[in-house]
Amino acid sequence: MTKISEISYLGNLRAVSRHLQSGVEIMTDAPTDNHGLGAAFSPTDLVSTALGNCMITLMAITAANHSIPLGNIKADIHKLMDTQPRRIKEIIVELSIEDKSFNSKQKQLLEYAALNCPVSKSLSAELIQTVRFTYY
């Protein structure tokens, strides 16, 4: 097991996380609907955003492994919270992918990679993951 990060509470519902290998820091803040200022990503924002990042990363790895020319990819992330209990109910990932004249097999490989990324497979089966692929 490898220690990957350290988290320090700053007060006022804020924390800073430091990635040990790179030194990069991310601040979190409680969202406005849960006593915070919403001045930074909330922990549930990070979970939702991690799903989109993981999908794009796996698509890029798959593209490299299969010599698929990959251009720009953008993901818009939406999160729907539930109240009883308070948790993420649904994450919607809208992937916009620059179409490099992909054939159907290439699209299938890229989409399979996204839908089967490690973050997706680590989330509760109760959490709804809605993923939309748009090629432009």
Describe the secondary-structure layout.
Layout: E1 5-11, E2 14-19, E3 25-29, H1 43-65, E4 73-83, E5 86-97, H2 104-115, H3 118-122, E6 128-135
Helix pairs in contact: 1-2
Structure report:
- The protein is α+β, with helices and mostly antiparallel strands.
- The chain has two domains: 5-34, no CATH class; 43-135, K homology (KH) domain (GMP Synthetase, Chain A, domain 3, 2-Layer Sandwich), CATH 3.30.300.
- 29% of the residues lie in helices and 36% in strands.
- It is built from three helices and six strands.
- It has helices at 43-65, 104-115, 118-122, and strands spanning 5-11, 14-19, 25-29, 73-83, 86-97, 128-135.
- The strands form two sheets. A three-stranded antiparallel beta sheet has the order 1-2-3, with no helix packed on it. It has a three-stranded mixed beta sheet with strand order 4-5-6, covered by helices on one side.
- A hairpin with a 5-residue loop joins strand 2 (14-19) and strand 3 (25-29).
- The longest helix has 23 residues, at 43-65.
- It is globular.
- The model has no long low-confidence stretch (mean pLDDT 97).
